[in-house]
């Protein structure tokens, strides 16, 4: 690990930025940054959606998206296409220091939602209280996080016709293949810098999936369609009900990403949430006890633009039946999630419907994290919420 002093000195040099996340040694594990070239072929489409090239068009898109008669489905497709391209996916693989409880053989693959990148899982602000990656390593798990297409340090292709739900589902599937067949660990072993803990790592015995928000749209569709590829799943900040997204995209308070505050290096069709939008979507509960102004500021500082094609294509991930899923799944809902449950998740889960969606699941559990909004890790009681996940895994042999 780069010492704090050295880190401070490096940050004073122009052009060099070293984040705490770049550290290879963590309190409870070792992490390696990876750039994985991933060949992807997936069904895509040209959708009938407005173009966004300035702030007025960004807000206009949000109103269009939230309009009650706007079609979110195949009826909005002008032309069906196929995308076949190799994308660079930036990722981080972490392995725990302690292998005592044997859970290092279980790899968690974590998929973040929209408006964020993989830093969602790995807070640099008070990591011991707010980084899910740190908590997972402390609990003995290996964990893989990645920047979805269009955010962070991954490729940022066309916002209308390329960054779409089926492409992202295929990225998750290929990454899972790599994890299961050992090629991911082999890739990590060869990637610089050379770290002993990553040399000749055996492929994980089990691979489980965890999602947040749009990452849970993806994870729930993934376990439904490709059940045999997962050994268990945690779906956070997502439940498919009539309340889902009923607050509408206007609640994001978007501006055009290329000229936003701060501006992002993005092309046409990328929008980004402003301060109040980040609070609307991600923060909830009693503002005196649920989160601090520092957590809100941190949540705003790691925001990422969103390509609007993701919203036009998201429908394909919703309500997929999962008869091939034969593993345990936990739905972990922030009690006061505004975007998913319109501010109140209590009593919204319908076990009859969940049983019907995953008829061969070995266990389906719904858990609520009290006094918490959509971004679970960025609330005061986050570590207790993380523990609900690890307890669920342990109760189910994971
Ligand atoms: C595109 O494909 C979808 C799903 O197969 C189909 O429902 C839709 O009619 C097609 N649209 C066009 C314009 O071909
Ligand atoms: C934050 O982390 C520290 C160090 O692990 C711990 O002592 C403290 O109880 C945690 N606070 C909360 C609110 O979880
Ligand atoms: C592992 O899976 C990846 C992704 O599908 C594939 O490219 C690679 O050839 C596979 N490797 C082996 C050894 O099967
Ligand atoms: C902006 O993004 C483009 C396309 O991804 C890239 O080629 C260019 O180097 C980036 N510019 C800066 C200043 O990062
Ligand atoms: C749960 O879903 C089933 C099947 O759709 C429905 O019959 C039932 O009324 C729902 N229960 C509640 C409490 O909404
Ligand atoms: C859902 O399935 C579980 C396990 O089979 C069962 O115990 C439970 O009663 C079911 N719940 C409903 C509402 O059908
Ligand atoms: C913190 O979360 C845990 C786990 O959900 C819960 O049991 C506890 O009541 C919460 N504490 C507060 C103060 O909300």
UniProtKB/TrEMBL annotation:
Matches recorded under SUPFAM superfamilies: alpha/beta-Hydrolases (SSF53474)
Residues in the signal sequence: 1-20
Coiled-coil residue windows: none
Protein name, as recorded: AB hydrolase-1 domain-containing protein
Keywords of the record: Signal
Signal among keywords: yes
Domain annotation AB hydrolase-1: ranges: 112-380
The keyword Heme appears for this protein: no
């Amino acid at each position: 690990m780069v010492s704090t002093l050295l880190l401070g000195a490096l940050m004073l040099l122009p052009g060099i930025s070293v984040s705490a996340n770049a550290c290879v040694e963590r309190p409870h594990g070792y992490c390696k940054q990876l750039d994985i070239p991933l060949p992807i072929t997936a069904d895509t489409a040209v959708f009938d959606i407005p173009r966004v090239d300035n702030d007025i068009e960004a807000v206009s898109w949000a109103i269009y998206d939230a309009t009650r008669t706007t079609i979110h489905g195949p009826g909005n497709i002008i032309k069906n296409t196929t995308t076949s391209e190799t994308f660079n996916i930036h990722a981080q693989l972490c392995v725990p220091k302690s292998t005592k409880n044997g859970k290092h053989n279980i790899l968690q693959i974590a998929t973040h939602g929209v408006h964020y990148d993989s830093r969602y899982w790995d807070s640099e602000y008070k990591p011991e209280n707010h980084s899910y990656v740190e908590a997972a390593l402390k609990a003995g798990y290996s964990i893989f996080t990645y920047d979805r297409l269009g955010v962070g340090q991954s490729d940022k292709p066309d916002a209308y016709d390329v960054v779409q739900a089926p492409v992202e589902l295929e990225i998750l599937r290929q990454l899972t293949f790599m994890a299961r067949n050992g090629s991911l660990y082999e890739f990590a072993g060869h990637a610089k810098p050379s770290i002993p803990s990553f040399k000749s790592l055996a492929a994980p015995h089990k691979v489980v999936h965890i999602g947040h928000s749009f990452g849970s749209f993806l994870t729930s569709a993934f376990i439904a369609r490709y059940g045999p590829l997962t050994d268990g799943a945690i779906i956070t900040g997502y439940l498919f009900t009539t309340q889902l997204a009923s607050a509408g995209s206007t609640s994001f308070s978007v501006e055009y990403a290329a000229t936003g505050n701060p501006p992002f290096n993005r092309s046409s069709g990328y929008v980004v949430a402003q301060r109040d939008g980040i609070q609307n979507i991600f923060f909830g509960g009693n503002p005196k006890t649920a989160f601090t102004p520092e957590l809100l500021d941190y949540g705003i500082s790691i925001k990422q633009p969103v390509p609007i094609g993701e919203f036009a294509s998201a429908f394909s991930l919703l309500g997929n039946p999962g008869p091939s899923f034969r593993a345990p799944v936990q739905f972990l809902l922030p009690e006061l999630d505004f975007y998913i449950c319109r501010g109140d998740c209590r009593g919204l889960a319908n076990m009859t419907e969940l049983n019907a969606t995953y008829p061969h699941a070995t266990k389906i559990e719904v858990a609520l994290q009290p006094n918490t909004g959509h971004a679970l890790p960025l609330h005061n009681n986050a570590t207790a919420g993380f523990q609900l996940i690890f307890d669920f895994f342990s109760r189910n042999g994971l």
